[in-house]
Amino acid sequence: MSGPLEGVKIVEFTSVVLGPWACQILGDMGADVIKIEPPAGDTNRHLGPHNVNGDMSALFLTCNRNKRSIVLDLKTPEGKEAALKLAAQADVMIHNFRPRAMDRLGLDYGTIRKINPDIIYCATYGYSKKGPYGDKGALDDSIQAGSGIAMLMSMVEGEPRYLPTILADKTTGMAVVNAVTAALFYRERHGRGQEIEVPMYETMVSFVMVEHLWGQTFDPPIGKAGYTRLMSLHRRPYKTKDGYIAVLPYWDNHWKTFCEVVERPDMLTDPRFRDMKTRLANIDVSYAETGKALAKKTTQEWLDLFRPTNVPHMVVNTLDGLIDDPQLTETGFWQMADHPTEGRIRMAKTPYNFSESPTEIRRLPPRLGQQSAEILREAGYSDDKIQQMFDRSITKGPSS
Amino acid sequence: MSGPLEGVKIVEFTSVVLGPWACQILGDMGADVIKIEPPAGDTNRHLGPHNVNGDMSALFLTCNRNKRSIVLDLKTPEGKEAALKLAAQADVMIHNFRPRAMDRLGLDYGTIRKINPDIIYCATYGYSKKGPYGDKGALDDSIQAGSGIAMLMSMVEGEPRYLPTILADKTTGMAVVNAVTAALFYRERHGRGQEIEVPMYETMVSFVMVEHLWGQTFDPPIGKAGYTRLMSLHRRPYKTKDGYIAVLPYWDNHWKTFCEVVERPDMLTDPRFRDMKTRLANIDVSYAETGKALAKKTTQEWLDLFRPTNVPHMVVNTLDGLIDDPQLTETGFWQMADHPTEGRIRMAKTPYNFSESPTEIRRLPPRLGQQSAEILREAGYSDDKIQQMFDRSITKGPSS
């Protein structure tokens, strides 16, 4: 068993993070993912530290397991023909070229559906092609700027800045998985494929505005956009005597217990903190008083005191601290494997647990073109023809 | 047509953001979602500004369209019996109670599968129940603290803080949609349901570490975790003469064009900026020099200069500015509707475009218990029995 999507064949024409990570999740859930790379490879092969080979860098390794790699030079007629053959045999095709570029390559939906009418064809790029920004290029940072995230940070910090995570790429990658799996269900039930567009900009505005639409939820607006609590200066992990702790006395029953544990009965009777609504109206002072109360003991002392209670609390982990985290260790979250060329590598397991169709890491991240010959053979190419394609650099493998 | 998941019946036992937003996405994609609420309603009904009714606040409205609401007091035998009846008729059940709480309620997978062996039963909560944190409570902030996000901010700012968006809830919500739609595909193909667990903590660590695993991708590690570029002090929208702009000369061809447009040939020949790799090694000075170059003209002047080029660039939108954004306006992103009780409301459309199974907003966010009677009738209850349940406060409607 290899996950709920076992038996689904996906061809991927993507690079960097959005498309590759989305396709990895689909591969993690069991799909057979064929990654079609240009002769120079996915640019992310070179991003981040590497151990042995320069084209097997950290950011490539975290986005490209559970897939096979074939090199095709799409600018040659033979390379394009092979790509069309693979698309003809696939259930799903995913690309992250801009609409005009895909038209120029001759790999647009109109062309593909002629050779594979039931394919699910998913395009993901910066902005919906139906709008004026339709053919604009995009990177994670520009979408963070466009979708209001950078300015949201200025409400906290005084100046706009990007969040220190590739939020737009990864969120849109999850949206691609949402849309493609839903279309797979639809095709299984109704027998028809379709074209799907998942634009980064629209996906991120929709994501940001879940909680931040706020006063603009109404027309005319009854206030500005922006969920005030999230912008509070004091909304942060609290300093203890020797470090930090996250404590969130959110509901009324949390608040009551919290005031008891920190021995601050005055905070319980203070009319500003009477219930969730009044605490939200006085959020800055509520957070500030919570912080003052927590400064009086060490992190470990507070952890011991809050553990038996229902008040949400948590250690504040560093990135490196996650490697030895007890919850992750005990649940086998970090999966170690000996990569045939890159040495021992660490991978995060799929965080969803399926009882009937469990997922597993079946394939380690491939070298560039590692399965070029194998995939061409599956597509019906003869060994002679494959050799010609290698000789003429239309395809290549890791040692060529 | 109402989306790729038309015909799928989902019962939702969730509140706040994670579960409700996930179920809204499933409803947006066509599923018939029944939201089972306690007599006091989803607590988020009271979160954020409201126009008419206090239990129809902003954050409830953005997470609860395309579903129907029924009130059931699960602490009464009759309320629980009705919940079991609804679960028996559903394709999918989603809850966000902690494992022990769901056992106590008698709505655990073991019980539900006895009355509906093929159900897809998805539980989403803080930490995988298999680990030592398994029954710990969680809120968005505590998961941000646990999963390294708060400390990531301290690498940028000097002190840990939470991101100003409910990242853990929303990302895990999308993960729920991923897992549930994949399981729906599996059930359609193989005829079997299953239990799914989608824990927030594990989902967020996996999300954060896509790019931040970095040197820890290898064992032994060849460096620390953390993608350095994202922590650069100068990685932010650049100041222009009169505002801000996002400009990202990322690839080598972008960089060349950028240096020409800003008339800085020295930056093109500077060995520190020769290619992507050297620019990444000198990321702080590379960003700083880019910023200096962009300080010399107004935002509009730069937009006009960069528009004809391939360099990714973007205006830096405020949240309120998104309401009138030209791309969003032209693509019909903001959908306005006259809510029968709350006045005119604004909603973001589903950002995915399906050519064959388009989605639409079929139902506006319901008042508490708006469809209590209708749903009980569908479940086979007689009008007399329904009236008794209203009389005994086991269920209620908006006017009761």
Overview of the molecule:
Two copies of one chain form a homodimer. Chain A is an alpha/beta fold and 400 residues long. Chain A has two domains: 9-208 and 357-391, Rossmann fold; 238-315, formyl-coa transferase, domain 3 (2-Layer Sandwich), CATH 3.30.1540.10. Chain A has 17 helices and twelve strands. In chain A, the strands form three sheets. In chain A, strands 3-2-1-4-5-6 form a six-stranded parallel sheet, sandwiched between helices. In chain A, strand 10 and strand 11 form a beta hairpin. Chain A is elongated and about 85 Å long. The first copy, chain A, starts with 8 loop residues before the first strand and ends in a 9-residue tail after the last helix. The mean pLDDT of chain A is 95. Chains A and B meet through helix 2, helix 6, helix 7, helix 8 and strand 6 of A and helix 2, helix 6, helix 7, helix 8 and strand 6 of B.
Key terms:
400 residues, 6-stranded parallel beta sheet, 12 strands, alpha/beta, formyl-coa transferase, domain 3, homodimer, 17 helices, 3-stranded antiparallel beta sheet, 2 domains, Rossmann fold, 14% strand
